[in-house]
Structure prediction request, 557 residues.
Amino acid sequence: MNQRSSLGKKLLAAPHLVWSALFIIAPLIMVVYYAFTDNTGAFTLENIAAIPRYTDTFVLSIWLGFLATVISLILAYPLAYFISQSKLPVQQTMIMLVMLPMWMNFLLRTYSWMTILEDNGIINTILTAIGLEPLRLINTRGAVVLGMVYDFLPYMILPIYSVMVKLDHSLVEACQDLGGNKWDVFSKVILPNSISGVVSGITMVFVPSVSTFYISQKLGGTSTQLIGDVIERQFMTANNYHLGAALSLVLMVLILICMAVMNHFSDGEIETGRISA
Amino acid sequence: MKTKKNILLKVYAALIFIFLYAPIAVLIVFSFNESSSTAQLSGFSLKWYQELFRDSATLSALQNTLVLAVLSSLISGVLGTVSAVGIDSMRNKRLRNMTKSVTNIPLMNPDIVTGISMMLLFVFAGRLLGQSGVLGFPTMLIAHITFCLPYVILSVLPKLRQIDPHLSEAAEDLGCTPLQAFFKVVLPAIMPGVVTGVMMAFTLSLDDFVVSYFVSGPASQTLPIRIFSMTKKRVTPDMYALSTLLFLAILILLILINFAQARGDKKEKKTASKKSSADY
Prediction:
């Protein structure tokens, strides 16, 4: 009886498995198929052979994504710590304030930076009003990184906060009782115990930053082409699905490698964190 | 010493919040601007709001977005809950881990790859069926359900693991059919997880631009796609008006949710204290 009902239960996963096969696995197979075929459907390596032409674009995307991730981490970590140490009602309000911009469409949020940084935008209007030279802000790489940090910062703050808020305060006291100074408390208790939040934060900022095309289009102008822009163009204007698929395939593999490298490093640290706990 | 450090952290937190909210404040202030300048204030006016409400394309995009979000969150809610029960009952560890990794693919993949991979699938299937304009509302719905499903499954699974398995066995011993046992015992216990998952799915669907952008057709715009096509041209303040209205809607929603949660917590505390006093 029990056996049968558990078999019936197992069958409940069947629709999901079918759905995953149709709409997760099959699309990825399509990417591979398009990457290795030409317009007639014949096998070709031409699309893959064209990838090295975009090496600079890949390097720039990963570099700017990396910068945005590091800056977000530096900005988010102290704030997440501060929020986790506050009183409960204050904590809830601040977390709501962090989440609120996240719920607003990121296109509009990016768009507002455009109006702030424009050549005759708010910052430059203020600068000329007080008699200073206007600055070139929009259409620079700095503006793109700023847009990435702004759009994805909440995704760094929230996972770090949610780990820190669970931190057992008696660990800090234990470290102090054993003669640890403030640096010891940070490096031996707080940091190791928050690594898992940091890792998911890094993932949640790095992946969308590397693959963005909207932020670079709006804030980077024509001078800052990211790999997302190139892929988007293949599908929406150039209509070269095959090259677009090949570029996406490479992007996916590169991101997987970055994630694997990071997980490799963080796994060890999460382990030690648990042991010291 | 401690207070000094605290003040420093407080100033730091304030600066970050200013950074997060300054652009939103700019949008709100300039939505009431008389002229279409995006840098200089010239007087109070509501004309950009009037313009927004006269724009039928934006309004129909808003309708599409809401219908899509409701449908995809409800469908992924049901499908995700059912699947979570199935995955939870898998005893074969390898099969279970494999299912979980496949489920996580949309979470790990960049949105642009999810979008173009589905677009390629739909275009390819359309070609097999001899149809050219396959992209539209149904393809968007499929795509949204696909990226929402993992969030529902991941928020239901932990709740399922917390349930005492003997409970549904007891219900069945007392004469419930397995289906009745599910609805009377399991579902109420995992309901918080289901609700969280559906809410996450709803907001993700509402906010999604990248995936929709690739799998939508010309006749099925959503609000983010509409915003994208409007911001391609010169900046106009009716987009500011739209942002302001969206911001207010979200703010009110969040405050209501917080309020409801606070009341729920109070109730829980009350029943808990009643229980503990009854124990004494």
